[in-house]
């Protein structure tokens, strides 16, 4: 069996605020990413290649808060984060604070495979990117009109409780390949109007991303500070491995238990070595999709 699950962020627009045309566009974007990752698995490719392929497509889609559609910080600059983990080897790579790397997830993989490190940040990460021949773009490439307007609303104090979650978002993928190997990848522009070099959970191994063949693969999305404090991705995998409980129960224990008690919200996608897939969130919605070799294919936004 092989399978892939993706997400495009939790805390989406409310049903009342999303037009039929917007929903159609989001679903098409999710479908394109899902198809890209599934195609890799269907031809016998590795789960690591599949999650990178899926996230790459989402990074190139301006609808999602990663790559081309990243939100802007307080100064109107896009700052990008990403991470990836190989469940077979426990190798991992992460980057943070990028301003010119077109596809951060590709650089995260290069950090994992071509450097002796796990995490590189800012100017140093981009120096490494240039040594690897990674495609670089002006920061203006990431600034879409929609994100500019979103920042302006944020600076005016117009981000209310009802729509504040539009200021968050992440994309990610988890996969199981025919060899039984797991992988996870996550990419984000972070939080609208962020300051002081703020970094969320997406590039932090164990918080927003984790994969281990002995347990599961997880990619998270939501209010990053809470995912960091409760080490969501690793804790889900640890509970699955050590408590010998179903993946769905481990996700519920962490996401709707300890994290929610602190006041955090968001969602996770997770898959284990047996092919169990969980797509869970405690916000109004989460852009998500799943496709398996057994014929399951779903794309959804709300419950």
Please give the structural blueprint.
Blueprint: E1 3-10, H1 20-42, H2 47-60, E2 80-86, E3 91-98, H3 104-114, E4 119-121, H4 122-131, H5 145-155, E5 171-176, E6 182-188, E7 209-211, E8 216-222, H6 224-229, H7 232-242, H8 247-262, E9 266-272, E10 277-281, E11 285-292, E12 297-302
Parallel strand pairs: 3-4
Antiparallel strand pairs: 1-5, 1-11, 2-3, 2-6, 5-6, 7-8, 8-9, 9-10, 11-12
Helix pairs in contact: 1-2, 2-3, 7-8
Please provide a written account of the structure.
It is built from 8 helices and 12 strands. With 303 residues, the chain is α+β, with helices and mostly antiparallel strands. It has an 8-stranded mixed sheet. It has a 4-stranded antiparallel sheet with strand order 7-8-9-10, covered by helices on one side. The protein is globular, with a radius of gyration of 17 Å. The two termini are 26 Å apart.
Structural class: alpha+beta
What are the low-pLDDT stretches, counting only 5+ consecutive residues below 50? 160-165
Fourth-level CATH superfamily: (Glycosyl)asparaginase
The pLDDT mean sits at: 94
Stated plainly, the CATH topology is called Glutamine Phosphoribosylpyrophosphate, subunit 1, domain 1
Give helix % range: 25-40%
Radius of gyration: 17 Å
User: What count of domains describes the coordinates?
Assistant: 1
Could you provide a short overview of the structure?
With 303 residues, the protein is α+β, with helices and mostly antiparallel strands.
List the defining traits of the structure above.
alpha+beta, four-stranded antiparallel β-sheet, Glutamine Phosphoribosylpyrophosphate, subunit 1, domain 1, globular, 303 residues, eight-stranded mixed β-sheet, 12 strands
